[in-house]
Design goal:
By secondary structure, the chain is α/β, with parallel strands linked by helices. The protein has ten helices and nine strands. It has helices at residues 2-33, 39-64, 75-80, 97-107, 128-134, 144-158, 178-191, 222-246, 262-285, 291-315, and strands spanning 68-72, 86-90, 114-119, 138-140, 166-169, 205-209, 212-213, 254-255, 339-343. The strands form two sheets. A six-stranded mixed sheet has the order 4-3-5-2-9-7. The protein has a three-stranded mixed sheet with strand order 6-1-8, with no helix packed on it. α5 (128-134) links the parallel β3 (114-119) and β4 (138-140). α1 (2-33) crosses α10 and α2 packs across α9 (262-285). The termini are far apart.
Length: 345
């Protein structure tokens, strides 16, 4: 199984990093040459360019892993997804919550115009972090004294965004760890699978519950908003209990979330372009005609593998830094799975 996974991950890692560096270069050129003249034009171009990178990760979910995402939402909320500004308040139950959010954004045609509140160190990650920085993600140090002005400035910049965008916020701040591993071990035992020690068992389906709130429905004071958010997550927790018992969200209709062809076309196109470029480079450099060249090639593959591992480890819960909160705020245990959205008017 490990050999099969490596046979996919290593080539994909090479493809992702080479194509990602191309995307980063295009973003940098546009940032320097176009953004000073027209911020809106830059944002429109960056949306298309950034999606050329993000769609490779969507391909992993849709076409390689074959994960089926079931969306439970009322018809009005579902039809308005991607057609209005939205603050997405999602629970942080697993290491790939953000990837499920990207899948929903892609289905709503706002993948390239989705931003999120991330920890500051994320922007230094090669390829993916750099692309997030060019896409105006908000990076915080997880200290309110330092982050208050960053948040205010970032939200102010987004006020003139030229198209509907999503701003994702994981208000729980971090993710749980040991409980997820124990649950994965129990699941593996029940299914007759190898017992994991350091990783989780990938599931073939994801259930997402969506509920939409108008801004005018929300309280106005900071204390009232904080209490509303706490009540929201209490309700999420109850909803998850029901989901665990029934394996569905029957309070909302199940929406059709088809698997698009676009991620497959993007990955295929990148694969052809990168393969052609690598082939021409090898012909020009005669890199594989000597042991030194073969050693350099092997070293390059090792670097790509290490970088992929760094990206994976960076998203794991064990390496998350808890948010610094004021005393007295209730802690969330991370056992909720309902996704919610707030409409901005």
């Amino acid at each position: 199984m490990a050999i099969v996974a490596a046979a996919v991950i290593v080539p994909f890692g090479i493809l992702f990093f080479i194509s990602g560096l191309v995307v980063n270069l295009i973003q940098a050129v546009c940032f320097v040459l176009i953004r000073p003249l027209s911020k809106n034009t830059y944002r429109k171009i960056n949306k298309v360019v950034a999606e050329l990178l993000w769609l490779e990760l969507i391909w992993l979910v849709d076409w390689w892993a074959g994960v089926k995402i079931k969306v439970f939402a009322d018809d009005e909320s579902f039809n308005l997804m991607g057609k209005e500004h939205a603050l997405v308040l999602a629970n942080h139950r697993s290491d790939i919550d953000w990837l499920v959010g990207w899948v929903l954004a892609q289905r709503s045609d706002c993948l390239g115009s989705s931003v999120a509140v991330m920890k500051k160190s994320s922007k230094f990650l090669p390829v993916i972090g750099w692309s997030m920085w060019f896409s105006e993600y908000l990076f915080l140090e997880r200290s309110w004294a330092k982050d208050e002005n960053t948040l205010k400035a970032g939200l102010q910049c987004l006020k003139d965004f030229p198209r509907p965008f999503w701003l994702a916020l994981f208000v729980e701040g971090t993710r749980f760890t040991q409980a997820k591993l124990l649950a994965a071990q129990e699941y593996a035992t029940s299914q007759g699978l190898p017992i994991p020690r350091n990783v989780l068992i990938p599931r073939k389906k994801v259930h997402v519950h969506i509920k939409r709130f108008l801004m005018k429905e929300l309280p106005e004071t900071d204390e009232a908003v904080a209490q509303w958010c706490r009540d929201l997550f209490v309700e999420k927790d109850k909803l998850l209990d029901k989901h665990i018992a029934e394996d569905t969200f029957d309070d909302q209709p199940l929406q059709d979330l088809h698997r698009p062809i676009k991620p497959l076309l993007v990955v295929t196109s990148w694969a052809c372009l990168v393969a052609y470029g690598v082939l021409k480079f090898l012909q020009w450099s005669s890199l594989l005609s000597s042991w030194k060249g073969i050693a350099l090639s092997a070293f390059g593959l090792a670097i790509v593998t290490i970088l992929m591992q760094i990206l994976i480890l960076f998203t794991q819960s064990e390496r998350s830094t808890p948010t610094k909160v004021a005393p007295g705020k209730p802690k969330n245990d991370g056992k909720t799975s309902e996704a919610r959205r707030d409409k901005q008017q």
